[in-house]
Write a structure and sequence with these properties.
about 300 residues, alpha/beta, Rossmann fold, 2 domains, 5-stranded parallel β-sheet
Length: about 300
């Protein structure tokens, strides 16, 4: 790998990445994956670099995979919890950032319930900010690991028919995937209740399906999303049972096309958006996504750290 520089010295949204950036991240992730399959000894790519994991929302997969990724590269890592910080005493988010920065932190991995927070923080720090999910806006590292999973499975993403199924209105994963997969030349479809589709989706360059059987027939891949009740206003769906009946992926539906590849960013609410028995199919790649998430985040941390002076 001769050129190991990304277009931007941060990652705030999927649109920050061009095809060359994505290819470079994939190549680096593949290198780490192959290395750690043979040898679990830590590398020193981030030795002397301090990474703060500032998660203002609950997280399991993203936080743990970033932590493991940074530690495997020998970074100094600490996790910041808003519930036990001076934010509870009225300190501003910006002052908190400046306090952490003054301790010698180089990279900030930020998750926040408000859209735009990582962008705001990047404008006010000399460090490197990585968006680990902001409100209903974006989750670019999830899109990267999803695309990496598809790339390793199919060999190429260009021309693949990928349908995103479920609660798209509240999903930052959907937004990042639509941008990233369009960049890589996939064909995108959406299947969701009309009340869970964002307004002005015409600009997204996606196909809209009204029947799950049509969506499955068209697709090479489905990315299934959970209902985000924590962000949802009442009345958007008649009931969870109604949603599951018409928009859930059941064994009966999936078995009509068993070669279909299925992804889910997690956590999965089995029995609502996905029937548990479907997860037994070998091309349901939910756990593979989790594995790939570590190596994608290792690659991203390593490549962005090259911008540190």
């Amino acid at each position: 790998m001769v050129n190991e520089t990304l277009s931007h010295p941060f990652l705030l949204q999927a649109g920050d990445l061009n095809v060359d950036d994505i290819s470079l991240i994939f190549e680096k992730a593949r290198f780490y994956l192959q290395k750690f399959e043979k040898d679990t000894k830590k590398l020193e790519d981030l030795k002397g670099v301090t990474v703060a994991l500032a998660f203002f929302e609950p997280s399991t997969r993203t936080r743990l995979s970033f932590e493991l990724a940074a530690k495997r590269l020998s970074a100094d890592v600490f996790t910041f919890s808003s519930s036990t910080s001076s934010l509870t005493k009225g300190e501003s988010l910006l002052d908190t950032l400046k306090t952490i920065e003054a301790m010698g932190v180089h990279m900030f991995v930020i998750r926040h319930s408000c859209s735009g927070v990582p962008n705001f923080l990047q404008q006010n720090t000399t460090g490197i900010v990585i968006n680990a999910g902001d409100g209903k806006h974006e989750h670019p590292t999830q899109a990267l690991l999803d695309a990496f999973t598809l790339h390793r499975y199919f060999g190429d993403i260009k021309g693949l028919n990928v349908c995103i199924v479920g609660d798209i209105l509240h999903s930052r994963v959907a937004r990042s995937n639509i941008v990233l997969l369009n960049t890589l030349g996939a064909n995108l479809g959406l299947f969701s209740p009309g009340t869970l589709l964002p307004p002005k989706i015409e600009s997204w360059n996606t196909r809209i399906f009204n029947d799950i059987n049509d969506a499955i027939k068209w697709s090479n891949v489905v990315i299934v999303l959970r209902l985000q009740n924590e962000r949802m206003e009442s009345g958007l769906i008649p009931s969870v049972r109604e949603f599951s009946k018409y928009f859930g992926v059941t064994y009966e539906i999936y078995s009509k096309k068993p070669e279909l590849v299925l992804l889910h960013p997690g956590p999965v609410n089995y029995g609502i958006e996905l029937e548990y028995t479907v997860s037994n199919y070998p091309n349901v790649l939910i756990q593979t996504q989790v594995t790939h998430g570590v190596y994608i985040r290792m690659a991203l941390l390593s490549l962005l750290a090259k911008n540190l002076s």
